[in-house]
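Structure, all two chains, one model.
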Amino acid sequence: QKEVEQNSGPLSVPEGAIASLNCTYSDRGSQSFFWYRQYSGKSPELIMFIYSNGDKEDGRFTAQLNKASQYVSLLIRDSQPSDSATYLCAAGGGTSYGKLTFGQGTILTVHP
Amino acid sequence: SAVISQKPSRDICQRGTSLTIQCQVDSQVTMMFWYRQQPGQSLTLIATANQGSEATYESGFVIDKFPISRPNLTFSTLTVSNMSPEDSSIYLCSVEGPGSGQYEQYFGPGTRLTVT
């Protein structure tokens, strides 16, 4: 059973703080990892993907991957109320070529 | 990324009926995916649809309940057959992104289905 696990939250942070979202995966063959943001009533929007160990930065977002620990994280710096959403972690590749396995999502609330 | 549209955006249907959902992409893509997102839940893959071949269904989903067509590289349909209230969900199509080879997927806006 290939699984991706996230803390469902809710995670509440004050505006301007760093939000840290975490995800673990069970399939060691997974090659690529994705963070999607989903606003209520909307479809998921891809905000980051990473496939090499280490950090990948894009604006206020940093994705971190540690394949040895099977751990992926997303840091959101200078959090804004508009970042309030559900964040979905997904894993793909390996034995599940082309298919993504999604975690349950973490609800993030950024309060002014 | 590709621009993806879905029709209808929402519908309310009676149990026992069927609904066909359309997914249109503005560029040719090899793989299209259909997901279900039940209320308050994450995304569950229903099937993978490749042009020119039968769709590949995930465990728990069968062709008789969710027939899929993929007539060309820009279009696919998903039918939800003989619906029951348990089929009330958001149905999403997605496509692989171009070029990176890292399996990223982009989602359409979704179809919100309510079965009464």
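Chain A is about 0% helix and 60% strand.
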